[in-house]
Amino acid sequence: QVQLVESGGGLVQPGGSLRLSCAASGSIFSINAMGWYRQAPGKQRELVAAITHGGDTHYADSVKGRFTISGDNAKNTVYLQMNSLEPGDTAVYYCNFKVVTTPTSPYEYTYWGQGTQVTVSS
């Protein structure tokens, strides 16, 4: 089993910054990819940013140039630096890890964090 613990959410004014962190622990052999999703009230969960084990990144168009995803493979941790925050960024943010748990099986499992609230308001 793998556990993900998120931190870093909160209330920030428009134009401000926040940094989210998500650390994974448990039965981890390797991590294929890490990502951040968000879900606003009444909306579907959407991908915000993702990073592969090799460091390739992908961003939603709405956050390009404002958000930066990074990962620390040694610490099994993913970060999301969010700058120039807008009210439209208000949502619960969830981290997502795609994990291989044993060296004898290539099967990939997906795990989710518990979610952290980000509110952008004046």
Description:
- By secondary structure, the chain is mainly beta.
- 0% of the residues lie in helices and 61% in strands.
- It has no helices and eleven strands.
- The protein has strands at 2-7, 10-12, 18-26, 30-39, 46-52, 57-59, 67-72, 77-82, 91-102, 105-112, 116-120.
- The strands form two sheets. Strands 2, 4, 5, 6, 9, 10 and 11 form a seven-stranded mixed sheet that branches.
- The chain is elongated.
- The model has no long low-confidence stretch (mean pLDDT 96).
Please state the CA-atom Rg, rounded to the nearest Å: 14 Å
Strand content: over 45%
Shape field = elongated
How would you classify the helix and strand content by structural class?
mainly beta
Summed over residues and divided by their number, the pLDDT gives a mean of 96
Number of helices: 0
Termini Cα gap:
40 Å
Biggest β-sheet strands, sense, barrel:
7 strands, mixed
Unreliable stretches (pLDDT < 50, length at least 5) are: none
Helix share, percent: under 10%
Quantity of strands, as a count: 11
What pattern of helices and strands is seen along the backbone?
EEEEEEEEEEE
